Amino acid sequence: MSEPHRLALRVYYEDTDLAGIVYYANYLKFIERGRSEWVRELGLDQRRMKEEDHLVFAVRRVEADYLRPARFDDELVVETRLIGATAARIVLEQAVLRGGERLFGALVTLVCMTEAGAPARMPAALRAKLVPAVH
């Protein structure tokens, strides 16, 4: 399996709840940032994909495990690893780590679709970029 993409981020006060820990929904924001940077690093311009191909990615499914809390000012790393891809679907494993300790894990399924919401096949050039990342 390929090396994961890594995105470093810091927990800000606005990310925390009344108990001073990261609010659960913010982990979904963190992994979204990780996916966005992973796609950008692959050389895919999602804005151009929307404008030229009229295609977008949407989250179809998230299986999330909240393991340990992150707190204000923690330095975190979001890891994103492609574990599978078909003509219209991408499956990613994502984790949020603090100093190597896994705080949050998710299995995320993305689908390719038209702007109108209909399922669509990914452009061949995109699939070609993804195939090496799976192996």
Instruction: Briefly note the structural class of the backbone.
Output: alpha+beta
Biggest pleated-sheet summary: 5 strands, antiparallel
Cα-atom radius of gyration: 16 Å
Q: Roughly how much helix do the residues carry, as a percent range?
A: 25-40%
Order of helices and strands: EHHEEEEH
User: How many strand elements?
Assistant: 5
Q: Which CATH class is shown?
A: Alpha Beta
CATH topology: Thiol Ester Dehydrase, Chain A
Instruction: List the domain count as a whole number.
Output: 1
CATH superfamily: Hotdog Thioesterase
List segments where confidence is low: pLDDT < 50 over at least 5 consecutive residues: none
Name the average pLDDT: 92
Principal-axis shape: elongated
Strand order of the largest sheet: 1-3-4-5-2
Instruction: Quote the beta fraction.
Output: 35-45%
CATH architecture: Roll
Instruction: Report, as a whole number of angstroms, the end-to-end distance.
Output: 6 Å
With helices defined by DSSP (H or I, 4 residues minimum), what is the helix count?
Answer: 3
SSE blueprint and pairings:
Blueprint: E1 5-10, H1 24-41, H2 46-53, E2 55-66, E3 75-85, E4 89-98, E5 101-114, H3 124-134
Antiparallel strand pairs: 1-3, 2-5, 3-4, 4-5
Summarize the structure.
The protein is of the alpha+beta class. It has helices spanning 24-41, 46-53, 124-134; strands at 5-10, 55-66, 75-85, 89-98, 101-114.
Provide an overview of this structure.
With 135 residues, the chain is of the alpha+beta class. It has one domain: Roll (Thiol Ester Dehydrase, Chain A), CATH 3.10.129. It contains 3 helices and 5 strands, in the order βααββββα. It has a 5-stranded antiparallel β-sheet. It is elongated and about 45 Å long. The model has no long low-confidence stretch (mean pLDDT 92).
